[in-house]
Amino acid sequence: MGVKMQRIAVVTSGGDAPGMNACIRAVYRAGVYAGVEIYGIRRGYTGMIDGDIYKIQRHDVGNIIHQGGTILGTSRSDEFRTPEGRQKAADQLFEKGIDGLILIGGDGSFKGGNYLSEETGIPIIAIPGTIDNDIAGTDFSIGFDTAVNIALESIDRIRDTAISHGRLFFVEVMGHTSSFIALEAGIAGGAAYLVLHDGHQEVEELCLHLESLFTKGKHHAIVVVAEGDHPGCSFGISKQVSARIKMESRVCVLGHTQRGGSPTSRDRVLAAKLGVSAVNALLNGQGGVMVGEIKREVVFQPFSDVIGKQQTTDPRMAVLSRILTGF
Ligand code: F6P
């Protein structure tokens, strides 16, 4: 039997996501339960390279379960993309006596973590934390449910103005190249049309659809746009559509409002499950895996099965949205 792990570090990396704090808390509590020290790494991989690592105390994780963001801070580090940068980070971890690492973040962060693990042998358990929900090997990533609900609340609010003024609105949501937020918030928010990054909708089709709706008596409409590769793309789309159908329109880019705020219960519970499972996995000798949840079961998948394998939306959801938008 191997020597028991003594010190586990936790780091948040890449874009923050609501529920990361609940996850850090879960990692700490699971560590205390198992008699292991938990260390926090500040500012993502940047802080790891700088050795900004401290022992988490009980009071550090008090009253954070409901807070958005991450108490550890986060970053997107260029230096960590180099072997030299990762070596510096590894040296810091070894110096602090860290035996295992829990990494909360998205695909880009997992790539870096995978290299670190391969180059140094340090066992790493990754936890999916991104509002984009684009990570393979889990039904949902931490932060997605909250982001959808924030987007939905915004759509509901915009609807009041759309109805009052009889206006056409374009509401752009985050998600990078994944359309999960657009699909869920669009369907739940009763959008008249969804412009999905991975769909085939064209401006031409959108115009015809809106004209047909307005001919049938509709006097306002909300179009939800997935930002895709070009945040702000909805300004161009709105301009084209307004010119073509001769109707004024307004654009609202929800942007980072979707990343902040108090996590939903679903995100907190997911964070709790994955955080505790990650600690247990390290203590059971696992490494080089991501912990996720599929059909309500906690599952572990090797990095090679999840990294770079973007989860895509269910095409049946796009069909559903078209039915509901009144085609
Ligand atoms: O990956 C999360 C995400 O919020 C994407 O949805 C968005 O495109 C991107 O991050 C924005 O990144 P930044 O915070 O660096 O502007």
How is this structure best described in words?
- The chain is an alpha/beta fold.
- It is built from eleven helices and eleven strands.
- The strands form two sheets. It has a seven-stranded mixed β-sheet with strand order 3-2-1-4-5-10-11, sandwiched between helices.
- The longest helix is centred in the middle third of the chain and has 22 residues, at 144-165.
- The chain is elongated and about 75 Å long.
- The structure holds 6-O-phosphono-beta-D-fructofuranose (F6P).
- 6-O-phosphono-beta-D-fructofuranose (F6P) binds at residues 15, 106, 130-132, 174-176, 227, 259.
Topology of this structure?
Elements: E1 7-12, H1 20-34, E2 37-41, H2 44-50, E3 53-55, H3 83-95, E4 100-105, H4 107-120, E5 124-128, H5 144-165, E6 168-173, H6 180-188, E7 193-195, H7 203-215, E8 221-226, H8 233-245, E9 249-253, H9 265-283, E10 289-294, E11 297-302, H10 303-306, H11 315-324
Parallel strand pairs: 1-2, 1-4, 4-5, 5-10, 6-8, 6-9, 7-8
Antiparallel strand pairs: 2-3, 10-11
Helix pairs in contact: 1-9, 2-3, 3-4, 5-6, 6-11, 7-8
